[in-house]
User: Fold these one by one.
Assistant:
Number 1:
Amino acid sequence: MDMMNLSGRAIISMLYCNEQETFEGAPVGEPLANASGQTLVEEEESKMKSGIDLIRRCGHISVSIALIATFIGLAQAQTRNAKKLADATKEAQKASDVFTEIMNVPDKAIPQSLLDKAEAIAVFPGVIKAGFIIGGRGGRGVISRRGRGGWSAPAFFNLGGGSVGLQIGASKTDFVLLFMNQDALGGLLKDKFEIGGEGSAAAGPVGRSASASTDAQLKAGILSYSRSKGLFAGLEIKGVVISADNDDNVAVYGKKAPEILSPTQRWTMSKMPAGVRIFPRTLARYSTRR
């Protein structure tokens, strides 16, 4: 409105700057009028008001469009996160089922003494050979780190690499990995971790006792196991790359894998989404340090 008043004053000043001038026979000192009977000042003010109203309407429309776009984006993000949480719940459940089935056969299970020494446990259920050959991604799984009195929330990881595909059949294979020391565990905090490259690995022993373990097994940072067609055994795997699935981790926890598995992160069940609690609870049922 200040702009309109300024322009109006300028026009009035121009019209009355010389009281002796006339225009098309108009009496001296009278404002000029248009065909509608409006003075030029009134006409100019009317146009400026219309322009200001138009600008305001356009501004309101722009704000409305921006708000609608924001709401749509938020809704889509919530939908994606809800789907990822549902998928994460399924992964945690499948990994829990695999570990329970393996440990429920004591004569063929992971020795308790080794399980109690493990700093972290990974379970990759239903890995298929075709996944490695075609896409370089054989399977998805979860990893929990041992904490004070229990286990961390499960972080989500992908299993990839070419050589393992040649070691497993066409049928689905379940993998269980025990990370036996801090060095092996530190590899998980990187973007990618290659078993047999950065981390020494060996086929883990099975049965009630680990007394028959070889030196290689005792010194290995990672002990690996597989189950295919009901047969559970130690399997040495090399060239396999474990990489964090941080799209899922961020969607579920708002954190990436290194934060989830960090020793400074204190997890309680109440801090985890309800759907993923099944995995750390399952691990705690078989191994807990006081």
Note: The longest helix spans residues 40-103.
Number 2:
Amino acid sequence: MSNDHTAARGLARETLAGAGETPPTRRGAPTARRGRGDRQVWLYVIPVSAVFLFVFVGPLIYTAWTALHETTYYQIGEFSGLNSFVKLFSDPDLRKSIGTTLVFSLGALVIALPAGLLSAIVLNDISRFKRTVRSLFLLTWLMSQATAGTIWVWFLNPNFGPATAITTSLGFGPTDVFTTPATALLAVTLITAWWSYPQAMLLFLGALQTVPEELRESLRVDGGGIWHGFVHITLPYLRNTIVSVVVVLLMLYVQMVTIILVTTRGGPLAATETLSMRVFNQTFNEFDLSGASATAILLFAVNIVLTLVAIRFRRKETL
């Protein structure tokens, strides 16, 4: 029986070869599996793309469309071209808003960046009660911006706040910091830095844990101190992380609304009206939807510039 089966297979091959055909093989199996794998990839890509279009691209197109039309309250009217952008850049208050945004963002960054780095170094060296101490450091960031702003408004209240009780007992009078332009901007900047520095701390802490312990041990053997270890080991390993933290925090501060809204609402005398707060006021106080959309496009351009700067820096570091 086996000889008959062998002869039959040989005859079939000869017949197919004579007809110019090749015997069937199993090469189609990998192709079929590859096709199924491609379909599975699309099952993941399509939902993500749909969410991206719905959450990002759609609102961006609608904002640009609104900026190119006249608006009455929240009703979109006739096409006006670039009139809203002309009004935006010819507005004398725009320069003040940009200056306030720069002072607010850079001021908060100067405080939050070293505070986050120092906190990360301290937490990285702690051996006992590490989780408890980390939780305490993260408490400020875990609360919402509205909660953080409300706490400080209560604490600095000139009538019944604890800060007023302390300063009055010391003979300095009430802490009326939100009524003068300079102190209001300073207070909002400090509150924002206090709320956001744990975010920088987490990013730095993750990067510190990638530093090889052998380098630190060799530094100790060579007699190097804490400062030498920080300059020659820690900083080189954190260079890319520092750039990422700077960009992340600046983008956060440029778009910050809630803390300013809760504490000062952009006042007094527009001293704390950043570009993002200007968008809020134009939308909900002045009902100028077209002007708010133009300002939002300007904010979007600022975020793009920050992102491109970070990408370019990281490319130089990897070359």
Note: The radius of gyration is 31 Å.
Number 3:
Amino acid sequence: MKLKQFQSYKAKRGVVAAMVAAFMALAGSLSFTGDVRGQAANGQKPRQYEDDRFGEKKDESDRFKFTRIKTSRVYPGDYIGDNSAYPWSHDYPEAGLHFSKILSELSKLQVVLDENEYIFTFDDPNLMKYPFAYLCEVGYMQLSDQEITGMREYLLRGGFLLVDDFRSARQMQIFQYYVKQALPEFEMKPLDISHPIFNCFFSIKTLDVRPPYDRGKPEFLGVEDKHGRLMMIINFNNDVSDYWQWSGDPYQPLPAEDTQGAYKFGVNYAFYALTH
């Protein structure tokens, strides 16, 4: 899939791509105790899942691999994706497939293509090999104590979360509860256009974007660690993944300029995660 609207873009492609390439080359030698981008924690065994679609199939941490967080149990064999009983799986697998393709086309980054994303729980040690993870519909999260601990460990060791596709005060309240459980010493705060995440690949000019739900203005929030590194970007009243999902459909119901904008945000998120 190649989107024509990306044929011309203003990006710091060469310098950023070189930084990421060097970083990814180093990643395989990093241990879990020093950084998220390395081996599973101290040789811990991978989590045993209720369904063989989940977890790591083979180690692909030497390339960018889109990964997703699972926040509830699944009956083995149940359908996952849009209109399923599992909100965390919305836009699966098309959104991840399309985004990975665009990321590969726009940069020199080595990306795993044409392969469904890995789906992890926060308490799976193998998650620690992958520095970028997608988390959606957080108003329906159901995390165990072990998963909350894993969420904390993943973020403090260098992992990055893209939190997407949720709305309403109630859903935000549920998400804030889990963030506070995992990271009690840190605060969620609004981000403005001056934050480096909006200028690390594409120079994004405005955060005044069209609301996909018509239920409130999209907000961009984050949680930073003690060094000022953004551990998660929170898209509230927004859904960039929905635009990615539908971008491969010639009859897509979403405006082309909004789809282009959603990809720009996503590419910036990924490059920020890999360079910070």
Note: Residues 4-275 form a domain with the Rossmann fold fold (CATH 3.40.50.12140).
